[in-house]
Amino acid sequence: MPQSVIQLDRRSVGREVPPPPRHRLAEPATRQLAETAGSLCLDDAHLDDQGWLQQVRLAGATLPAVIRDPLVCFGYDSGPAGAMVLGGVPTDRATPATPTVAGSVRRVPSLASAALMLLAQQLGHPVAYRQEKSGALVQDVVPVPELRTDQSNAGAVELLMHTENAFHPYRPDYVLLLCVRADPAGEAGLRLSSVRRALPLLDDRTIATLRQPRFRTSPPRSFGELMEAQVGPVLHGAVEDPDLCVDFAVTKAVDAEATEALARLGRAMGEVTHEIKLQVGDLAVVDNRISVHGRTAYQPRFDGTDRWLHRVYVQVDLRRSRQLRPANGHVLDSLR
Ligand SMILES: O=C(O)CCC(=O)C(=O)O
Ligand SMILES: [Fe+2]
C-alpha cells in the first residue's frame, strides 16, 4: 500500500479533498501486535528505560509486514494528506479511568502503550522534551478541569491548527496519537490539514512571503523564558513540496504584508482540513513537517469517562539533537 507520490496540481485541489488514508489492522494482525506488546509488559518494565526501548526496537523488527508496511510506506512519503489513521491497534481490556490531572503520563507499559511504542519505532525514534510532561515518552492527552480554556492538549476549547512544538529547532518529525477512550459525546474531532493540499490554493507572492524570515513563534509557558523566539520562515525546503512550520495560536508576522500572507495560509489550510473522530484503537499518525493538527471544542465531564489519547513524538534522525540529549537518551534538555 505505498502512498502515492505527491503531485501538486492546481486544477485538482480545492474541490473534493479526500480524507487522510485509513488503514485497518485485520483481527489476526491486531492479535499478533497484542501478543508482542504483551510480551513487553513485564513487571519491572519502565517505558522510559533505555533497556526496555531496546527490547521494543528488536521486537518491532520482528512484526509481520501487514503491521509494519503502512508505517514504513508513510515514513518514505506521507502522501498528499501528510497524515493517516491506523485502526485496530490493540488496547487494554480494562482501561482505567481517564486521568484528570495536568501533566499525566504513562510510565509503566500497558498493552496500548507498548503497541504504540512498537508502531512508533517503525518511523524512527521516540523523543520527549524535559520541560514538557516531565520528559515522559508516552504522554496522556486528556482534558484537565483547571486548563479547560487553555490553548493546549489539556484544554477543551478549540485548539488552533499547529505544527507540534513549532518554536523548537528539534521539533518532532511525527506525532502519534492513539485513542484509548473515545469522547463519549462524540464531539471532539482531531483536525488535520496539509501544506501539500493548501499550497496550490496560494498565489506566488504569498508563497514567497511565507518563505522569508518574517515570522516569530513563541514557546509555551512550560518551556520557560529561557528561549527567545527567533524570526524564521513558515515555509522552507523544496519549492514544489515545502515543509511547513506554523502555530496559528502563537506565530506572529513581523510586518503587515507577512500578516496578510499568514492569514491567507490560514484560510487555505482551513479549506483542506479534515476532522476525525478517533475511536478506541485508532492511531492517528501526523507528519509534523507537512501537516498541522488541531482539535474542535468539546464538553468534558471530568468523571473518568472523557476522551483519552496516548501521544508519542518521533524523530527520524536522533543524532541531529544529540547535544540536547544527555547519555544519548531520548529526552531533549532545554535549549539555551
Ligand atoms: O486532542 C487532540 O485531538 C490533539 C491535541 C494535540 O494537539 C496534541 O496532543 O498534540
Ligand atoms: Fe498538538
Automatic annotation (TrEMBL):
<dbReference type="InterPro" id="IPR050411">
    <property type="entry name" value="AlphaKG_dependent_hydroxylases"/>
</dbReference>
<feature type="domain" description="TauD/TfdA-like">
    <location>
        <begin position="121"/>
        <end position="313"/>
    </location>
</feature>
<feature type="region of interest" description="Disordered">
    <location>
        <begin position="1"/>
        <end position="24"/>
    </location>
</feature>
<feature type="binding site">
    <location>
        <position position="311"/>
    </location>
    <ligand>
        <name>2-oxoglutarate</name>
    </ligand>
</feature>
<dbReference type="GO" id="GO:0005506">
    <property type="term" value="F:iron ion binding"/>
</dbReference>
<protein>
    <submittedName>
        <fullName>L-asparagine oxygenase</fullName>
    </submittedName>
</protein>
<dbReference type="Pfam" id="PF02668">
    <property type="entry name" value="TauD"/>
</dbReference>
<feature type="binding site">
    <location>
        <position position="307"/>
    </location>
    <ligand>
        <name>2-oxoglutarate</name>
    </ligand>
</feature>
<dbReference type="GO" id="GO:0017000">
    <property type="term" value="P:antibiotic biosynthetic process"/>
</dbReference>
<feature type="binding site">
    <location>
        <position position="164"/>
    </location>
    <ligand>
        <name>Fe cation</name>
    </ligand>
</feature>
<comment type="similarity">
    <text>Belongs to the clavaminate synthase family.</text>
</comment>
<feature type="binding site">
    <location>
        <position position="293"/>
    </location>
    <ligand>
        <name>Fe cation</name>
    </ligand>
</feature>
<keyword id="KW-0408">Iron</keyword>
<dbReference type="GO" id="GO:0016491">
    <property type="term" value="F:oxidoreductase activity"/>
</dbReference>
<keyword id="KW-0560">Oxidoreductase</keyword>
<feature type="binding site">
    <location>
        <position position="206"/>
    </location>
    <ligand>
        <name>2-oxoglutarate</name>
    </ligand>
</feature>
<dbReference type="InterPro" id="IPR042098">
    <property type="entry name" value="TauD-like_sf"/>
</dbReference>
<feature type="binding site">
    <location>
        <position position="162"/>
    </location>
    <ligand>
        <name>Fe cation</name>
    </ligand>
</feature>
<keyword id="KW-0479">Metal-binding</keyword>
<dbReference type="InterPro" id="IPR003819">
    <property type="entry name" value="TauD/TfdA-like"/>
</dbReference>
<keyword id="KW-0045">Antibiotic biosynthesis</keyword>
<dbReference type="InterPro" id="IPR014503">
    <property type="entry name" value="Clavaminate_syn-like"/>
</dbReference>
